[in-house]
Description:
This protein has helices at 21-27, 32-39, 53-67, 92-99, 117-130, 205-230, 255-271, 280-287, 290-296, 302-307, 314-330, 357-364, 366-371, 378-385, and strands at residues 6-13, 17-20, 43-46, 75-81, 107-111, 138-147, 160-169, 175-177, 183-186, 192-193, 202-203, 246-249, 334-341, 345-353, 374-375, 402-408, 411-416. It is an alpha+beta fold. The protein has a single domain, classed as Peroxisomal Thiolase, Chain A, domain 1. Strands 1, 4, 5, 6, 7, 8, 9, 12, 13 and 14 form a ten-stranded mixed sheet that branches. The chain has a three-stranded mixed sheet with strand order 3-2-15. A hairpin with a 2-residue loop joins strand 16 (402-408) and strand 17 (411-416). This is Hydroxymethylglutaryl-CoA synthase. Keywords: Transferase. Belongs to the thiolase-like superfamily. HMG-CoA synthase family. Residues 176-390 form the Hydroxymethylglutaryl-coenzyme A synthase C-terminal domain. Residues 3-169 form the Hydroxymethylglutaryl-coenzyme A synthase N-terminal domain.
Amino acid sequence: MKKRVGIEALAVAVPSRYVDIEDLARARGVDPAKYTAGLGAKEMAVNDPGEDTVALAATAAARLIRQQDVDTSRIGMLVVGTETGIDHSKPVASHVQGLLKLPRTMRTYDTQHACYGGTAGLMAAVEWIASGAGAGKVAVVICSDIARYGLNTAGEPTQGGGAVALLVSEQPDLLAIDVGLNGVCTMDVYDFWRPVGRREALVDGHYSITCYLEALSGAYRGWREKAVEAGLVRWSDTQPGEQLARIAYHVPFCKMARKAHTQLRLCDLEESPGAAGLTPEAREEAAKSAASYDAQVASSLGLNSRIGNVYTASLYLALAGLLHREAGALAGQRMGLLSYGSGCAAEFYSGTVGEKAAERMAKADLDTVLAKRERISIEEYERLMKLPSDAPEAVAPAPGAFRLTEIRDHRRLYAEGA
């Protein structure tokens, strides 16, 4: 009998400041609807140099341990998925292990593949536990990133930052993952990249969307084939994707989730016996069903719309937002998750929402996490964006949060708020 493995609990950390997206639109001379309706954005997290990848990751992990009363002696693996690393050799995970004084008897490393890195770490942890190699230990997987494109750029309104820490164990109170029923797709493409030494990414926006949708198709079809064979879903008048109670997608901007869901439905309709008589145009029109999107996807985007792009954490911010709103109603139901990382790789997997999901999410206290942020002016946002990454300001960290205080002899020093 296979072990039940998955996500037991999660915690979220975000920068202490944000801008209202309509303020940004007006400052750029743009109709606010272009950002709100066109991108699905409401607010955008703004980090300063002290709120780097390590600080966000450590804050999320410390919050997870504190809120969920995690016995740190049981942690046998710590993985950080990030594309905003701070050193070519020393991983973010080693910083987190030291700052939180976690056991030395654990495996620590970072995973990098653009926005897919967090899922790569999660799957490594799940398979480590499912195989028995974990010997009863749990894993902490942290997705921590800062999406930065620069002032007055096309990508500016999709910036953001934050971290989601996941506790992975044989007690999957949040989500019991269908181990082994993953669909994957990878291609060597240049849709998004950030050469060494650059703070801002280079993006071929339209091409990246095309790559995302193509990789989604390959990954979803791979999952669907395995899921149908295993009897988890079936071909019928209701397509396999429609049999999932909810689907969470990688969210570089919220409207991308609508494009992704249309593509997933199109994959089903293209191969469905029930849709064989439809013309390609009719299938595409059916795939755009607003009812399907509203039922399966819309409720997952609340946090993403208020924080922005978080690269590796974007999918898991969507999961957190979904369970924050609907954990109780979804208990016992199966959902799908699609992870995408430019370059590129995609993975579609599924899992069942746990009976204790609502209880676990209540402990995560996401409303308070957002309420403690400070709304700032566009002038202050622009000032923060112009600060050098290696010169953090002397700002005291909030209670329970970590902050980079200085870089001395190439060593990064952090402080925790009392």
